[in-house]
């Protein structure tokens, strides 16, 4: 009898980091709530999970993160005011985020690292594979990545990470993977991982970006993972343990992403994301592009 597998349905979004690169904006506001044009960055991430078929979303939050919960909840006062005014367009925009997914929240307490944040999801996730989407990594909706990762996980089992080729001089900013090719051009087998290596020690220029589909065996490994770089429990260290001992929880594969991605936790990339997405918007784009063109010509 063939064993039927449950399709992956749970997404975990760690959003408990301190966002120190964006201070003072993030002193009392989560960085995930910073707007990218007119939507908070986190809404793009939840939309991406839902588009890939993952409508059960667990957000890992912490102190100062209440606005995240409020954003995905109803706001009756605002809805009533807009209904009274007959402003259906804005009413629909307000309701969009609360109708999007089934949202759950757990607090991390102390932000002891991404690995620790993922471990906080263990009771909710149980023993099925699940996806992790970093709240400050934005993948352009026109370049779907997560659905491909879910397919690869369902085909090979184990865990799947997202990789992007970067300039070797930039590799020290990322987790970095040692890889072997597979029959699929966009898929590699991951044989090792190292967090933020010196360029001279980097096994490749394949950088780990913020999307993962993980075997639940990761939880057992994370419980045993000692704090690593920066005194934090690193997800990369736990994935390295899985990659080097497939008996623990199956192989680790990487899907190589060549699409558009913005690290909205980084100020420069955040600005680039806003400019690019605003230029491409049908409602704002034409006027904004004209302004941008003359600004660049006249001011720079
Ligand atoms: P970052 O490395 O971007 O850290 O975390 P940060 O604290 O959010 O931002 P900076 O560097 O101080 O500006 C990557 C992701 O992991 C989450 C963050 O919220 C972000 O989505 N994270 C990190 C947690 O949820 N908990 C942690 O303890 C650490």
Automatic annotation (TrEMBL):
<dbReference type="InterPro" id="IPR005835">
    <property type="entry name" value="NTP_transferase_dom"/>
</dbReference>
<dbReference type="InterPro" id="IPR005771">
    <property type="entry name" value="GalU_uridylyltTrfase_bac/arc"/>
</dbReference>
<dbReference type="Pfam" id="PF00483">
    <property type="entry name" value="NTP_transferase"/>
</dbReference>
<comment type="similarity">
    <text>Belongs to the UDPGP type 2 family.</text>
</comment>
<dbReference type="GO" id="GO:0006011">
    <property type="term" value="P:UDP-alpha-D-glucose metabolic process"/>
</dbReference>
<dbReference type="InterPro" id="IPR029044">
    <property type="entry name" value="Nucleotide-diphossugar_trans"/>
</dbReference>
<dbReference type="GO" id="GO:0003983">
    <property type="term" value="F:UTP:glucose-1-phosphate uridylyltransferase activity"/>
</dbReference>
<feature type="domain" description="Nucleotidyl transferase">
    <location>
        <begin position="10"/>
        <end position="274"/>
    </location>
</feature>
<protein>
    <recommendedName>
        <fullName>UTP--glucose-1-phosphate uridylyltransferase</fullName>
        <ecNumber>2.7.7.9</ecNumber>
    </recommendedName>
</protein>
<keyword id="KW-0548">Nucleotidyltransferase</keyword>
<keyword id="KW-0808">Transferase</keyword>
């Amino acid at each position: 009898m063939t064993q039927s597998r449950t399709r992956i349905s749970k997404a975990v979004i760690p959003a408990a980091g301190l966002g120190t690169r964006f201070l003072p904006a993030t002193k009392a506001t989560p960085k995930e709530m910073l707007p990218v044009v007119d939507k908070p960055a986190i809404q793009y991430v939840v939309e991406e999970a839902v588009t890939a078929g993952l409508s059960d979303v667990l957000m890992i939050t912490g102190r100062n993160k209440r606005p995240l919960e409020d954003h995905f909840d109803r706001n009756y006062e605002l809805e009533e005011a807009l209904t009274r005014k007959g402003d259906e367009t804005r009413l629909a925009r307000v309701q969009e985020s609360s109708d999007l997914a089934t949202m759950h929240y757990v607090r991390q307490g102390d932000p002891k690292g991404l690995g620790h944040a993922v471990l906080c999801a263990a009771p909710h996730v149980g023993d099925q594979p699940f996806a992790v989407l970093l709240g400050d990594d934005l993948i352009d909706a026109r370049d779907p990545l997560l659905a491909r990762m879910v397919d690869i996980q369902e085909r090979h089992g184990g865990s799947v990470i997202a990789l992007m080729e970067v300039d070797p001089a930039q590799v020290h900013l990322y987790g970095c993977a040692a890889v072997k090719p597979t029959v699929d051009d966009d898929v590699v087998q991951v044989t090792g991982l190292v967090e933020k290596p010196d360029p001279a020690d980097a096994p490749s220029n394949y950088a780990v970006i913020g999307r993962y589909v993980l075997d639940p065996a990761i939880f057992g490994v994370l419980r045993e993972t000692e704090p690593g770089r920066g005194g934090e429990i690193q997800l990369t260290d736990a994935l390295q343990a899985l990659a080097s001992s497939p008996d623990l929880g199956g192989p680790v594969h990487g899907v190589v992403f060549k699409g558009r991605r913005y690290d909205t936790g980084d100020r420069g990339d955040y600005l680039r994301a806003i400019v690019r997405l605003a230029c491409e918007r049908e409602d704002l784009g034409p006027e904004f592009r004209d302004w941008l063109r003359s600004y660049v010509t006249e001011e720079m």
